[in-house]
Amino acid sequence: MKIVLSRLAGAGLALWLVASVTFFVVRLAPGDPARSLDPAVPLSHAETVRKLYGLDRPLTAQYAAWLSGLLRGDLGWSFDHRRPVAEVVATALPPTLGLAALALGLQYGGALAAAAWVARRRAPLRRAIDTVALCLYTLPTFWLGLLALRWLGHRSGLFPTHGAASPAALGGLSHLADLLHHAALPALVLALANVGLVYQLSESALRRALAAPYAIAARARGLSENRVVWRHALRNAVAAPVHRLGLDLPLLLSGSLVIEVIFSRPGLGRVAHQAFLARDLPVLAVSATAAGTLVVLGSLLADALHRLVDPRVERV
Amino acid sequence: MRWSDGLAVTAEDVRWTWLAQRHPEVAWRYAEIKKNIKNVRVLGLHHFAVEYATESPSQLAELNEGVILPRHAWSALPFAEWPRGAAWFRDHLVTNGPFELAGWESQQRIELRRNPEYFEPDRPYLSSVVLRVVPLRANRLAELEAGKADFVSQLVPAEVRRLEGQPGITIRQFWHRQYDYLAWNLRRPQFAQASVRRALTQAIDRQALVDTVWDGRARIGTSPILASVWAHHPDLEPWPYDLSAARDALLIAGWQADKNGVLRRAGRPFELELLVNSANPIHVDSAVLIQTQLARVGIEVAVRRLDFHALIDRLDSGDFDGAIGSWGIDTSLDLGYAFHSRSITEGYNSGAYAEPTVDRLIEAAREETDQDARREILYRLQEILHRDQPYAFLWEPPRFDAHSTRLRGVGSNPLSSLFRLREWRVGHD
To answer: pLDDT tens digits for B314-373?
Structure first.
């Protein structure tokens, strides 16, 4: 309990730091969101906009108002979308999280299954698959995405090329199937771009586990190799990739920006990018804070999962 | 004419729209355009009179700016709540155009359907239109080529090359209301003399720029009033690319080449930093070409690619030597935004160009209602700007749209790529 409380306190402090640094970096960056570049709009209009959004107040007062708003759950007002930031983020977050979850599932499921399969194969095949994993890891996500979109989307028509769902309203399971159909290709690209590292971690950990005395003892007791791998070795081998899982969360968020642009999907990445271009400070600050929150939560999640799969951690 | 909820569009709507447009709490960005309108009086159901403070050639444009709003539906929301009323307006949407909103999804699409109350019989031809957001340029083209989209706007020359000759695709080219320029900062001593600025223009091979970045499809600029506009001065010729004339003019201004060919005056080299928006590949390519071209006369150019907002900050603070930019012009032909000395502090005259005759002519053009007399004023203005070269006018770009051949009646023009959407139809002649 003491450990949990201390971790939560640390996370709270980290979040406050992330939110504060984000606010000042965003606010002090070049660019005036109130400024219009239309010759028909007088410069005096910028004063009106500044007053409207409280940008005419001292920076410290703006910070205090923003932070107290955050604590009250009021994320502010978007200059660009002209609606509450909470609404903008609430609309954009589900498709991003859905895509990230699917990609994580594919990435970790695929990596662990491949590692378990390869662990029992001969060295030349292992080396060949290692090379493939390394190649996948080095490929830029945008290149992989463009290639997949061209061949599996536009050319073959197997997957949708645009959006997160069909415009026609579907209900129940059809809607779920439609969402999955739209997310499948982007999630696959995102997973492929990151699967290499997880595979390498899993495969080397699994090989070490299979050479450990308890695995030899299990074989000596007459257990099948399948049972040794899946029941005994894998559980010990997953600690390293699972620890990595928490750290992958924010990476997937940044990766999803590229994917959202390539596949014209809605999401937080695109919202943040648009906010940067439009200097939509409240949205930008909240998006960056959300990314920071994911780093902190990812770190907490990594610790929790590590403890779950490896009871020895409790005793340290 | 009726609103989409069936009620008539009336003169009361027009008056109430004017009240909303100029209301300080609404904070409409174009409110300034309405400042000359003193009153809008309702004379009958569909008749109204407009009273102006002063006579001006832009009266119709001043009245026409913005759209008529539905008083019966929107007067329920106090003006003070308009700036934060997007959600309310969305829930109370009433329109009077050829289409009405059928649905929308943030970052994804806007769906329009035919407005059955539209006043023109049989229009629009299309029963529905879907406007899709496709952030990646390459995907827009791929969607058109795959037959998943019918219309794509604002192509760049490389995309035009890719689509040209493809069966089932038509490319439309038309002159846009934009010109691109290189602005000099006249606060800097090296750009203070008009003869030096003319020499710089003559040292830039604008035809080579147009050939390279626009595939030769743009036209070289001579003035801020575009060649397709009635008041464009027909006798102004672009300053020719003439390195020897440029060198002579620079020599007279005191700039002499050292043994390395670098121009120097009082021991100081002629060097300049050229700012360019990093997100505009045409401007970035042009800046690099200009860097090479000006090196031929001994001027060292450092190209600085900046994020758009950082670029604007530098221009606003007057902290630059030269910058490449674009302006889109409107029908008022008011050149005050960039060339009146008052705009140094109150407008977009970033280079601090100040010429009393130009100020007087700009003010006269704002008030002159006789078209021939106004043309003469604008001609004189263009002659002075051509002589003074506060900007090196680079080019007037065309705009390219592409659509599938099954789409008929497409009338893209400088006002809008979707101009007269009500006339678009699907089918073959």
So the answer is: 999 999 999 999 999 988 899 999 999 999 998 899 999 999 999 999 999 999 999 999
Hey, how many other C-beta atoms are within 10 angstroms of the C-beta on B344?
A: 17
pLDDT tens for B50-98 read 999 999 999 999 999 999 999 999 999 999 999 888 889 989 999 999 9
Q: Do A42 and B30 touch (CB under 8 A)?
A: no
First to last CA, chain B: 31
Bridge partners (DSSP) listed for residue B169: B404
Sign of the Cα torsion B24, B30, B34, B35 reads positive
Tokens coding A168: 């026609």
CATH class of B178-396: alpha beta
pLDDT at B84: 87
By CB neighbour count within 10 A (0-12 exposed, 13-18 middle, 19+ buried), where does B120 fall? exposed
Could you give phi then psi for residue B173, rounded to 5 degrees? -115, 130
**How many residues are listed for chain B in this entry?**
429
CA dihedral A241, A243, A246, A250 (to 10 degrees): -70
In angstroms, the CA B29 to CA B33 distance is 9
Which residues in chain A are closer than 8 Å to B133, comparing Cβ atoms? 264
φ/ψ (deg, to 5) at B393: -75, 115
The answer to whether residue B148 neighbours chain A at the CB level (below 8 Å) is yes
User: A93-142+184-309, superfamily in CATH?
Assistant: MetI-like (1.10.3720.10)
**What is the CATH number assigned to the segment(s) B102-174+404-426?**
3.40.190.10
Instruction: Name the one residue in this structure whose structure tokens are 């007062």.
Output: A61
- End-to-end alpha-carbon separation of chain A, Å? 15
Identify the CA nearest to B338 among candidates B346, B347, B330: B347
Task: For residue B167, say if its preceding peptide bond is cis, omega within 30 degrees of 0.
Answer: no
Indicate the domain borders of chain B: 11-87, 102-174+404-426, 178-396
Mutation choice for A interface testing from B82, B108, B337, B344 by most A CBs within 10 A: B108
How many CB atoms neighbour CB B100 within 10 A? Answer: 19
| Nearest partner of B352 among B153, B152, B195, B184, judged by Cα | B184
Residue with tokens 């997880």: A198
Numbered residues of chain A with Cβ closer than 8 Å to any chain B Cβ: 29-32, 35-45, 48-49, 52, 77, 81-83, 87-88, 91-92, 146, 149-150, 154, 161-164, 167, 261-262, 264, 266-267, 270-271, 274, 277, 279
Alpha helix segments (H runs only) across B322-369 = 336-339, 343-346, 356-367
| Strands B300-306 and B271-277, bridge-based pairing | parallel
CATH 1.10.3720.10 residue spans of chain A:
93-142+184-309
The pLDDT score that the predictor gives to residue A316 is: 44
Contact B308/A at CB under 8 A: yes
B240 vs B206: CA distance, rounded Å? 9
Half-sphere exposure of B183 (CA within 13 A, CB side): 28
ipTM above threshold 0.85 = no
Q: Confirm or reject CATH 3.40.50.1220 for domain B11-87, answering yes or no.
A: no
Given a contact cutoff of 8 angstroms between Cβ atoms, the answer to whether B177 and B329 are in contact is yes
User: Nearest-5° angle of CA B269, CA B273, CA B275?
Assistant: 165
